[in-house]
Design brief:
The chain has one domain (about 1-155): Dna-directed Rna Polymerases I, Ii, And Iii 27 Kd Polypeptide, Chain: A, domain 1 (3-Layer(aba) Sandwich). It is built from 4 helices and 6 strands; from the N terminus they run αβαββαβαββ. The chain has helices at about 1-25, 40, 90-100, 115-125, and strands spanning about 30, 65-70, 75-80, 105-110, 140-145, 150. The longest helix has 23 residues, at about 1-25. It starts with a helix and ends in a 13-residue tail after the last strand.
Length: about 160
Amino acid sequence: MKGMERDLYGWIQYKLEEMFKNKFNNCHLEITSNGNFSEEIKSKVPDFYDIIFSFLKKKNSPDLTGFVKEQHNIEFITVEIKNDVITLEDVYQAKRYADLFRAKYGFLISTKSIPTEIKRLCQKIPILYIAGTAYATLKLGEFDTGRREILEGKWFPEHPFKI
């Protein structure tokens, strides 16, 4: 299963970069599932906050990590990818990564439809909101492996760039 997920990293990275570049004309996103973060990412984390790298090791890192420059701010992106039905544990794992980076853009992307039970729970209990960032939520999405696309109408709770 994990090997199959790894096969998705490049495609999903490419599709998310495309989305961010269409919106902001810039994006840096890299595969970090092995616990290795480039100097480019490390340099964007403030010195007082770089303790997070002590907690992000090989089996405890987002699958993809990056950033986008919005006006004068650097906003982090974290992505967890699943080649299976999303579980509550997956939601909390993706949220943990987004929380650690204080990511404005936290994603959990699956090759399967988002279960109704997860949607209902998230509507009743606001677990998708990222701690410390009142304007950020974790976005759940579905990736079609045949078309190699993140399906436009399958975002939850809404499309990341919905106006």
